[in-house]
Amino acid sequence: MERRLDPPQQCAHHCDAPRHLRLSRRGFLALASLLLGCHTRHISPLAQPAASFPSPTPAVRPRSERPSRPARNPTLTVNVPDLPSTLAQQARRWLARLEQELPQHWTLRVTASPDALFHLRTSIGTPSGHPIGGRVFVPVTTHENLVRNLTADGLRALLAGTIDNWRDLGHPDDLPILRVSIEDDGCRLATAEQQVPNVFSLTEIADHGLFALVEPDSTVATLRILSIEGNDLFRSPPVALQVPELVEWLVLEGPTHLLSLDALPPEPLPQPNFTSLTVVGDVIFGRTVHRIMVQRKDWQAPFRAVADELSWADLTIANLECALTRRYAPPEDPRTLRFLSFPEAIAGLQLAGIDAVSLANNHSMDFGWQALQDTKDALAQVGIVSFGAGANVESALEPAILCAGTVTVALLGFDGISTEWYGATNHSPGTAPLRPELVQKAISAAANRAAIVIPYFHWGVEYTLVPTTFQRQIARLAIDSGATLVVGSHPHWVQGVEWYRDRPIFYSLGNFVFDQEWSRETKQGLILHLWFRNSDLVRYDLVPVLIEDYHRPRIATPEEATVILRRVQASTRALRS
Fold it and tell me: Among 41, 275, 277, 435, which is disulfide-ready with 405 (CB 3.0 to 4.6 Å)?
């Protein structure tokens, strides 16, 4: 069955351009001869009117009465197979441009016939014909899979089916690999054990060891993207083009040497446009951290090992648990629970590219409202936005509205630890109280002003792995009220991730810049990376950190990261039980 290509809408680029391919005389004659030959041998009902068939009883008629012979215009036939939607769209656009460039009276016809002169094909890796488009993939698995990075050889082994267990790729436990082929918005793997129509169906597979290749623009947050040779493919998109197995080309096969295709460049590879946010846990500049910065005369010392991991995002957020002022002297007691440093410490926040901080916690008011106001003023002077505290409860609940990429983001902070003594009221300054009615009202109002709404809760019980029932109730209330996701801190330990109404709750990111060197758990923390397509969360990644020398977080080694992520998993599983 043949399908005639719909006439394209002529774009401005072609309005005044002559409709002809730039052929040499020899190429023109060769192609025309080839096309006319094909036209004669493969006449379709559309090209051959019924009146042109010979009469059963031929009769000689005067020349003026003889029916005219159909014009033998060249017909360029292209076989187009069943293609994934991304490649099908590229094929339509490119063929429409090709039709615009054909000489007058030439016809382009899309057909399912294998006898077509030209054929569209897909080709993984090195193109096997003339490229006219293509798409890029990213490798995905589940968040429960502790393998986070693949070597190029490991990726090839996965695709070739020569390994069957994630343990061969660094997983600490026995975890069989389930290769899944995706028909539309992913790669059709030749070695797959299972096949699904799309990425949405992939997420319904309850197998921690699944593996697939998906188009970046089709990723969903319940899947985790694997790095290649230590490179995150969302943060370094060109890396994917250096791995042939991650690129599928759409190519034109046939006597393309007879065509001059300089005027028809390939369709560009899809380039998804994501908004990125990064969030970290509790940051203090007081106590031991302050003394180290002063002794070393280095106000950026706490962030030097992690600045690159934080500063690349469109928006980076932290919970700042101290006052920054010269109104008072920092306490000399090494065990003090009142945290203060000088405004110079903001240099570390600047180095890390931190754009906004929550002050809704149990230490921002340690030295009173005037010291907190000094903190807010010092942050504002360098362009860092603060939220979660104010001159009264109304201003404390006011969200920070920022632009990140192409979307607006509303940030709110709620203090669930020191509400009774530091919480703002109608007539007194302080932190934003974590009370259900205030949470609901503030988030609902923010959802009318921004596409993405993120409440940052300071809550929970110190040194515990599992969130409380009250935390879970508040988190659900926040999402019911319009929160895009929920982030929390304060327990000094990392905690699990829970999904509610298809939105994630990150109960505790743990410590980040802190001096609790006395236990392994208090030295562990998480960097949370988030990616959005408009207001939809399409990916998150948890990057474990380990705090050293009483003040400095660094990226955890693979072995250290496994220990930290196992704790996150243990907390997550407890939430499911």
Answer: 275
